Amino acid sequence: MINRKKRNEEILNACIDVFYEKGIEQATMRTFSEATGHSPATIYQSFKDKREIVTNCLFFCIEKRNQLGSRLMEKNINTPEKFIDDCEKEFDEMKKLSFVIISILTSPYFRGLKEELAEAIAPSIEHFKRCFDGELRTMLLLYFSAMLNCCIDGNEEFYQNQRDFIRNRIVEITKE
């Protein structure tokens, strides 16, 4: 028998895919059921309604993105010029998680979660501050901004131009 935490994570991972492919508004308990292979009744055992799924999915996405970002930061703390290259390898996952986060934040389901969101994001921001400083931190923040912009408007060419500029500037910074 699958434990509750593992089942919830399985459901939330499937919901991330549903939200990414269909959007928040078009997602239904039926689409969640189809994506997970679980009956709606099984999903209702874990989450009382779509709002609860959306809320849990937001924090699950933030946690997954924080873990991915932390792993990449730790791996590249002494070689920041390779950080963007490693982010590129994880681009599709980062883009999907970021897109779902943005979709939830801009949906009616987000109301009343601002304080919880700040608490969820804080550890990642503090870790980032400890790993990188000065202009290097600024360049990496610009990189993440370009990635988020790509999630919002789909302009991959702009993202790639920004990424290349930022990567080159990081190489210059690390040589100084």
Description:
This protein is mainly α. Helix content is about 80%, strand content about 0%. Helix 1 packs across helix 2, helix 1 (about 5-20) crosses helix 6 and helix 4 runs antiparallel to helix 6 (about 90-105). The N and C termini lie far apart (about 55 Å). It has one domain. It is built from 9 helices and no strands. It is elongated, with a radius of gyration of 18 Å. The mean pLDDT is about 85.
| Element pattern in H and E | HHHHHHHHH
Q: Largest beta sheet, briefly? A: none
- The percent range for strand residues is under 5%
What spatial form do the alpha-carbon principal axes imply?
Answer: elongated
Number of helices: 9
What is the overall pLDDT average?
87
What is the count of structural domains?
A: 1
Structural class: mainly alpha
Poorly predicted spans = none
Question: What's the number of extended β-strand segments?
Answer: 0
Oligomer: single chain
Query: Distance between the terminal alpha carbons, to the nearest Å?
Result: 57 Å
Q: Please give the share of residues in helix.
A: over 70%
Cα-based radius of gyration, to the nearest Å: 18 Å
Question: Which keywords apply here?
Answer:
176 residues, mainly alpha, 9 helices, 80% helix, single chain
How would you briefly describe this protein structure?
With 176 residues, this protein is mainly alpha-helical.
